[in-house]
Design goal:
This protein is an alpha/beta fold. The chain has helices spanning 21-32, 39-46, 63-76, 104-113, 118-129, 132-140, 154-170; strands spanning 10-14, 35-38, 49-53, 58-61, 79-82, 96-101, 146-150. The structure holds 2'-deoxyadenosine-5'-diphosphate. Residues 15, 17-23, 110, 151-154, 156-157 line the site of 2'-deoxyadenosine-5'-diphosphate.
Length: 175
Amino acid sequence: MAQNPRKKPNILITGTPGVGKTTTSSLLADATQLRHINIGELVKQNNLYDGWDEDFHCHVINEDLVCDELEDMMEEGGNIVDYHGCDFFPQRWFDRVVVLQTNNSVLYDRLSNRGYMGTKLSNNIECEIFQVLLEEAKTSYPEEIVIALQSDSVDDISRNVGMLTDWLRNWQPAS
Ligand code: DAT
């Protein structure tokens, strides 16, 4: 048993860019009053990066700094963490890890609309085809807390948010 069990659950929403992590997390935060932590935004706001990746046009995040920044909030509980990676967070932080997944052609259109092209676009589509985030989640967390949810349509978002809201409301702290 943890020495200081949290009173509220922490949930990680992960998946390839474009699958709907931020949309889902934001609606879930509205429904549950939990805190939505968008790691990409946190990294930018607090300069938690080591440089800029020219190939992928994104910051190279400093994972240690990100974890230091999050530690107190995660210990307190009540967080929805939204990020396209999951293997560098301490396993003990999360009560549930949700991997959102999207049909490849739907994802292609979403990422093109976002302005992704070339290597960045093809790498992300490959990442989805090969279920990289699902594998990463399964190797980083206990199998029983990892779930994959389809996120192709607005109906999928509503169903996922409803299901996760029920789960979060019914969560009980470890006694
Ligand atoms: P992520 O945070 O995973 O990068 P997002 O929440 O920013 O993704 O969504 C990217 C875009 O796709 C945004 O315009 C909203 C849209 N979208 C996401 N999930 C969707 C879904 N299940 N149905 C329809 N549109 C969706």
